[in-house]
Amino acid sequence: SPSDPDLVERARAAKAKLGDKVFVLGHHYQRDEVIQFADVTGDSFKLARDAAARPEAEYIVFCGVHFMAESADILTSDDQKVVLPDLAAGCSMADMATAEQVAECWDVLTEAGVAEQVVPVSYMNSSADIKAFTGKHGGTICTSSNAKKALEWAFEQGEKVLFLPDQHLGRNTAVRDMGMTLEDCVVYNPHKPNGGLTAEQLRDAKMILWRGHCSVHGRFSLESVEDVRARIPGVNVLVHPECKHEVVAAADYVGSTEYIIKALEAAPPGSKWAIGTELNLVRRLANRFAPEGKEIVFLDKTVCFCSTMNRIDLPHLVWALESLAEGNLVNRIQVDKETEAFAKLALERMLALP
Ligand code: 13P
Ligand code: SF4
């Protein structure tokens, strides 16, 4: 839907008034009405790297979800303030691993006698607490664009990886990129005693996958891949690695949001694509590439927005920008000092990956 012209004008005016004092970051899953005001757009890796790109900006308005804003706060200086336009913009996957559950899991691994061999690798989509746990235990953060490098690094440090919290990204990377088998992976269920695993299973496993998933990408099925191939002969199926293993195995290409965009930019005119990722991005790409004769469809019949990404809408952005322009710091995301120190260690290990 087209954005309200009055709100567009207000956002423009507030941004102009703030000038260099504000830096707006936008994740690819954001609405069109929001993304038009982003100074930088990107996938989670690019946004983590770019968050620190404007040290002179007093305010960083993060149009994305809570864990991204936390990471931006961790990676920027203390006098830079990170603002999330709607505090309800969380991530259901990140919520699937709490600090207490992960501490309990570490006890289970210790009890089974495997903790010393385990290196934690945590997906960016996790709370600052989980990132701090990761840093404290010698591990690294990864995103969907560097998960392979992160696992390669981790297996140089230890014999096993505890992968948090997305089982699908962990499994897909292990099997597709690292030559492991499905049997090398076990799933730790935080809602069961001992994660639902025996000490023997933990000793035999190479990858211990946390039982988390993305509710948006979890909706794509093998059937949706088969359907689209039947409907559109010659279609290229391109999916995000947060999709289930069977979907990823049936796809032609797999990658992060930034990878998806690059692949479509490089695609020849007349090519056909079915994309398995969030709908705001797929719609934007379909509109952008239609004039070049690239046919882009959504890999599903049902509408599939990320509801929390969508919480950031133009009214919230206008409110945040106007408040800042009037000198009111609203919706600041600030990670406490101790958590920040360990989480930063883990994030910096990721940024230092080759
Ligand atoms: P990327 O942008 O890193 O591909 O991640 C997708 C996602 O789910 C962010 O929440
Ligand atoms: Fe979280 Fe999935 Fe939304 Fe990404 S798309 S923010 S992983 S719920």
Automatic annotation (TrEMBL):
GO biological process: 'de novo' NAD+ biosynthetic process from L-aspartate
Swiss-Prot/TrEMBL catalytic activity: iminosuccinate + dihydroxyacetone phosphate = quinolinate + phosphate + 2 H2O + H(+)
UniProt main location, coarse: cytoplasm
GO CC annotation, single: cytosol
Molecular function per GO: 4 iron, 4 sulfur cluster binding; metal ion binding; quinolinate synthetase A activity
Cross-referenced Gene3D superfamilies: NadA-like
Cofactor comment text: Binds 1 [4Fe-4S] cluster per subunit.
Pathway where this protein functions: Cofactor biosynthesis; NAD(+) biosynthesis; quinolinate from iminoaspartate: step 1/1
Assigned EC number: 2.5.1.72
Cofactor section: [4Fe-4S] cluster
InterPro entries in the cross-refs: NadA, NadA_sf, Quinolinate_synth_A_type3
Localization: Cytoplasm
Presence of the UniProt keyword Repeat in the record: no
Positions bound to [4Fe-4S] cluster: 91, 214, 306
Keyword annotations: 4Fe-4S, Cytoplasm, Iron, Iron-sulfur, Metal-binding, Pyridine nucleotide biosynthesis, Transferase
Regions crossing the membrane: none
Residues engaged in binding iminosuccinate: 27, 44, 123-125, 144, 240-242, 257
PANTHER family recorded: QUINOLINATE SYNTHASE, CHLOROPLASTIC, QUINOLINATE SYNTHETASE A
NCBIfam families, per database record: nadA, PRK09375.2-2, PRK09375.2-4
Family: Belongs to the quinolinate synthase family. Type 3 subfamily.
Protein role: Catalyzes the condensation of iminoaspartate with dihydroxyacetone phosphate to form quinolinate.
Name the UniProt record assigns to this protein: Quinolinate synthase
